[in-house]
Design brief:
With about 675 residues, this protein is of the alpha+beta class. It has helices at about 10-25, 50-70, 100-110, 245-255, 265-270, 270-280, 285-290, 300-315, 320-325, 335-345, 390-400, 410, 445-455, 460-465, 470-475, 490-500, 525, 530, 535, 555-560; strands at about 160, 165, 170-175, 175, 190-195, 195-200, 380, 420, 565-570, 575, 590-595, 605-610, 620, 625, 635-645, 650-660, 670-675. Helix 4 packs across helix 8.
């Protein structure tokens, strides 16, 4: 059935006006707007009674925190990157090899989002040379979705696209398989027959992991990384034979899994910009390189791992309402959020939710009493949650219907650790993309809260392991009813606290007044001509990563999503025009255009209507601007926001175009149609 989208003119104008008005009020995203206070408008004058109540409630919350945690300082985020957790020497001092420096952090951030490193292709396992250098770590860790993939299936090489914005400026993740590619076996899974590797998920055509990609927030506060704690094990463990700190070990494991290890240096050594960045970040290695002339002394897997781990250690949020409250602002939290925070802190036996028992510390990912983060096994729990959907692909590829993701048990080899997964941060959940838990089973924070409120495992296989934690099933005590027993209002309060009080918009959109850095490379990071003229002199191109490739992914759909190129789709779209007509008001003339996709391929992202050959006396109302060079300079263009980010074959969209024209002017033009975001 053909899909019809009929958009009336007044609705278009109303939507545009509303979008611009709300954008001016709230910034670029509705997520930037703080929640209104419960008992009065946020900007209303406060009475002495209001302020007194705020102070009393805030003091009660602080007292509850001190009683359970021992001090507010244990929950505060260090203001400087240099004060964040770093690997130490036996005497407790920071190990200089792994110390945070700004030069190392900036290099690591560039490397994290640069596709040039993904060049370890092995055709004997199905790897495709055409996919080389099309994905980066940032392909599965997006700033707009809390540093996660934002969709159930995370795709590195073999994927295309990043996402699109709708008419209201909201971002929607959309990364999919490249046409014609098939995922044979998930990344991290091997089929071994008689000691010979037959299938290897690290090297087939599609790089996808059978777990939800986790947020990078709070990376440096963990002594074990990956959801099963594979990274950071002792040197006796086969996953960490070099005895690396958890961060560097995680980088090593990830580079091996995602087509980077061993070969990434070859591409980096060809880039003068990268050479300069490595010299800045690693002065000792730069001295050895200057003496030997061998770039292997400067750019190698070790220095890449240390740079990326340094960047990830600095991935924190510092300016949530919760942080402002901990700093002494009595009015940082709304009345509902104050109630939710009290539930968060209080023990379940005392009517609370006891979240802080597992989610303490500055990043809310440490055990209560271990805010410094020294314990290991206590951070892993079986919550009765089943497999990620891609585990079914692993079962089929291996011919093993009994294969399941057993989490921590896979690393320790102990049956009592089966189905245990690491406790993650609760910061930035509002942007989690609607996928939560390692299997992406829950679609919202509310669903997770309600799951804990019931205290009943959703997966019988995980439950049958016999080690589901009583913190989940019976948090109020061994003889109590299952779950937390929260009433609907308490659920609402807790959800509000988790979603809004722990959210920092500066993680997504750069704010010069915030001490939170954007997760992704921002305009300052990428405008070399202004902020890094030394890199511009070496060939750094504004808007692109140091290698000169597209940020995060370098496939054609992502480049269109980023506004770096546009696909000419005029031949794919049949334009059915109504006669030009004049409404009963003003000098405006209207024309209805029906845009029908007559091709066998979808038209992606935004559809741009470029008007060519209009008489000089005729103007396109609400034109977004003039083209710079595509398809030709100086053409007025309109942007059509496609439902769901695409116009599928056989479907159509209808738009009404308004022209300002003299009474007798002839409105003649041709249309050239482009697919892409940004300015053509």
């Amino acid at each position: 059935m053909r899909k019809q989208t009929h958009v009336k003119l007044f609705l278009v104008l109303l939507a545009v006006a509303f979008c611009r008005f709300t954008s001016a009020v709230r910034g670029s995203s509705q997520q930037d707007q703080p929640a209104a206070r419960e008992w009065r408008p946020a900007d209303a004058p406060s009475s002495a009674a209001d302020e007194g109540r705020d102070a009393r409630d805030a003091q009660a919350l602080r007292a509850a925190i001190i009683a359970r945690v021992g001090g507010l300082d244990k929950l505060r985020v260090p203001e400087r990157n240099e004060d964040l957790p770093q690997p130490t020497l036996p005497d407790g001092s920071v190990d200089p090899r792994f110390a945070i420096t700004e030069a190392k952090r900036y290099l690591g951030k560039q490397l994290f989002f640069d596709p040039v490193r993904s060049n370890r292709i092995k055709p004997e396992f199905g790897g495709l040379p055409t996919t080389a250098q099309t994905g980066s770590c940032g392909s599965c860790h997006l700033g707009e979705v809390a540093g996660k993939a934002g969709q159930v299936i995370n795709l590195h090489l073999g994927g295309e696209g990043r996402g699109f914005t709708d008419a209201f400026g909201d971002f929607h993740v959309r990364r999919r398989l490249q046409p014609g590619l098939v995922d044979v076996i998930p990344t991290g899974v091997q089929q071994i027959v008689n000691g010979v590797i037959i299938k290897d998920g690290r090297f087939d055509a599609v790089d996808s992991v059978p777990r939800l990609s986790p947020s990078m927030i709070g990376f440096g506060f963990n002594n074990r990384l990956l959801l099963g704690g594979k990274a950071g094990q002792p040197a006796s463990d086969p996953n960490n034979l070099l005895g690396l700190p958890a961060g560097e070990n995680l980088a090593q494991i990830a580079f091996d899994a995602h087509r980077m290890l061993e070969t990434q240096k070859n591409a980096l050594q060809q880039s003068p910009v990268h050479i300069k960045l490595f010299q800045d970040a690693f002065p000792q290695e730069a001295t050895r390189y200057a003496a030997s002339g061998n770039l292997d002394d400067l750019i190698n897997d070790d220095t890449v791992e240390r740079a990326v781990a340094t960047f990830l250690r600095t991935v924190v949020t510092r300016n949530t309402a919760w942080d402002r409250f901990l700093a002494g602002d009595d009015r940082a939290l709304t009345q509902r959020q104050l109630r939710g925070a009290l539930l968060f802190v209080r023990d379940a036996a005392q009517g609370g939710a006891n979240c802080i028992s597992c989610h303490s510390g500055p990043m809310l990912n440490k055990q209560l009493g271990d805010e410094a983060g020294r314990v290991v096994e206590e951070n892993f729990y079986n919550l009765g949650v089943g497999d990620h959907p891609l585990q079914e692909l692993a079962r089929q590829a291996l011919g093993d219907p009994n294969r399941h993701d057993i989490g921590r048990g896979e690393i320790t080899g102990r049956a009592e650790d089966n189905f245990k997964f690491r406790v993650l941060t609760l910061r930035q959940l509002k942007d989690s993309g609607g996928q939560l838990m390692h299997s992406a089973i829950f679609n919202s924070v509310r669903e997770v809260v309600e799951y804990f409120n019931k205290g009943v495992p959703e997966d019988q296989i995980a439950a049958a392991a016999g080690n589901v934690t009583p913190r989940f099933t019976h948090p109020r005590g061994p003889n109590s009813e299952p779950g937390l027993g929260l009433n609907p209002r308490e659920v609402e309060d807790l959800v509000d606290f988790l979603e809004n009080a722990l959210y920092d918009p500066a993680f997504v959109k750069s704010d010069p007044n915030s001490t939170t850095e954007t997760f992704e490379l921002n305009a300052k990071d990428l405008t070399y001509s202004i902020y890094r003229p030394d890199l511009a002199a070496l060939g750094g191109i504004d808007g692109l990563v140091a290698s000169g490739l597209c940020v995060t992914s370098n496939d054609s759909l992502t480049r269109r999503d980023r506004g770096l190129e546009f696909l000419e789709v005029t031949s794919r779209i049949q334009v059915i025009r109504s006669p030009v007509y004049r409404p009963s008001f003003g000098p405006v003339r209207l024309q209805r255009l029906r845009l029908l996709n007559i091709s066998s391929e979808p038209v992606d992202t935004h559809l741009l209507l470029c008007f060519k050959g209009l008489p000089s006396s005729v103007r396109v109302a609400r034109a977004e601007g003039l083209t710079t060079n595509t398809p030709a300079p100086g053409l007025p263009y309109l942007r059509v926001f496609l439902p769901g980010g695409e116009l599928t074959p056989g479907s159509s969209a209808t738009v009404i175009v308004a022209f300002f024209a003299p009474p007798r002017a002839q409105i003649n033009y041709t249309l050239e149609l482009l697919s892409g975001q940004g300015r053509p």
